[in-house]
Amino acid sequence: MYNSHNGKVPVPTLERLATYLRYLIDLEQSHIETISSAEVERQTGINAAQFRKDLSYFGEFGKPGVGYNVIDLQSRIAHILKIDREQRVILVGAGNLGSALIGYPGLKEHRFNLVAVFDNSASKIGRPLWELQIQDIATLKEANATLEARIAILAVPATAAQKAADALVEAGVTAILNFAPILLRVPPSVYVRNVSFLQELAVLSYHLSAAPEN
Amino acid sequence: MYNSHNGKVPVPTLERLATYLRYLIDLEQSHIETISSAEVERQTGINAAQFRKDLSYFGEFGKPGVGYNVIDLQSRIAHILKIDREQRVILVGAGNLGSALIGYPGLKEHRFNLVAVFDNSASKIGRPLWELQIQDIATLKEANATLEARIAILAVPATAAQKAADALVEAGVTAILNFAPILLRVPPSVYVRNVSFLQELAVLSYHLSAAPEN
Q1: Are A196 and B8 in contact (CB under 8 A)?
Q2: Would you give the end-to-end CA distance of chain A in angstroms?
Q3: Nearest CB neighbour to B22, from listed A7, A11, A181
Q4: Is the model's pLDDT at A100 over the cut of 80?
Q5: For residue A171, what is the nearest residue in chain B, using CA coordinates?
Q6: Does B5 contact chain A (CB < 8 Å)?
């Protein structure tokens, strides 16, 4: 995974923050009130020093000898990642992947509000997808003038991805999660994050062969 | 995204190698024979110095003043990532996400051979999924004794993920691409790579708010 541009905080730190958040939610649900960085390491596989360094970008956290308050840390990380407020999201591509993403239970829990889904296929437009009705991508700009979503998930085939990205940018979207295996061309003000299944498998493959045999 | 353990080569380097590979394949299809690191930067958004550093882990590449041979670089990266040979992969979870993954056109192209799909749902077992027939996860170990897949894709709900991971480890799988939003517990010899849609969206969200308004 690479990113078209970064802020000052390293992207891997942001990724790990989201991992800590996931873990903290589990802890809260188990009614655990405080944790140590050593415990974070044991549970997440992320080094305790790394955990402390990741947090250090954002100020003071935790108390020496006491540890970190689970609920406090959770809400501070959610605030850092700006997922403590509603974020409206639109989905382009109503195929299997789009269906899987829209049904992902974690979205609502984290206040990502999927407000519309678009496709270019006449056989899909007008049909329901979960609680939404699939809309014609030709109407994206008009629809988003009202919806004002700034985040989009792009789950279309590679051949359709650039055209869909152009439409998203035109419609005022400034952050795109791209699942199509192509490098999108967007203005510098638009942040693209690429998820490539091939890339994920390639990293697995590399480690598979390097790992000791069972 | 984080990894339960790393080799000596940084994971972000491996991720970028897969990005370069994707780009090189496009170039080859456009009959472009050589490229410069500046051109890589322009096309992928990855800094030219970073590109050269990523390659430097693996020896000498390219010729000063000439650049990189597209086909040669492509085959060398494929070799580094060990995707120049067939890798058998099994899929656990035949829902929307599993269906999307199994139908992903890049897999075969890169010699990831999806040899079997398993699920625990009686309503799915025995039904076809693309060219495969969905098998009962209870038969996973027995089936993989013949298939000998070492890579698995885990695309099941969070509640089913740990049990499925245990079954995969039991069946000899040593590398798991996990889409379930939980931290799997596996032996140290098993490499897990987590893909979290929530994490991806959180990183987007962070940059969205930090980016200048359009």
Answers
A1: no
A2: 29
A3: A181
A4: yes
A5: B214
A6: yes
Tally C-beta pairs within 8 A across A and B: 243
* B1/A14 touch (CB, cutoff 8 Å), yes or no: no
Cα A200 to Cα B193: distance, rounded to the nearest angstrom: 8
Taking the C-alpha atoms of residue B160 and residue B120, their distance in angstroms, rounded to an integer, is 9
Residue spans of alpha helices (H) in chain A: 11-29, 37-44, 48-56, 70-80, 96-102, 106-109, 140-147, 158-170, 197-210
Model confidence pLDDT, tens digit, residues A13-57: 998 898 898 889 888 888 999 999 999 988 887 889 999 999 999
Examine the pLDDT at A2 and tell me if it is beyond 50. no
The answer to whether B193 and B177 are in contact (CB under 8 A) is: yes
Q: Is the pLDDT of residue A6 over 70?
A: no
CA distance B123 to chain A (A): 18
Q: In this predicted model, what pLDDT tens digit does every residue of B109-133 receive, in sequence order?
A: 788 999 999 999 999 999 999 889 9
E strand or H helix that includes residue A128:
strand A128-129
CB B13 within 8 A of CB A12: no
pLDDT of residue A50: 92
Residue whose entry in the numeric block shows the structure tokens 């996931």? A22
Domains and CATH numbers, chain B: 11-80 (1.10.10.10), 87-199 (3.40.50.720)
Q: Which of chain A's residues have a Cβ under 8 Å away from the Cβ of B95?
A: 100
Q: What strand order describes the sheet that includes A112-119?
A: A128-129, A132-136, A112-119, A87-92, A151-154, A175-178, A191-194
Q: What is the pTM of this model?
A: 0.84
Pick from A7, A103, A191: which is nearest to B96 by CB?
A103
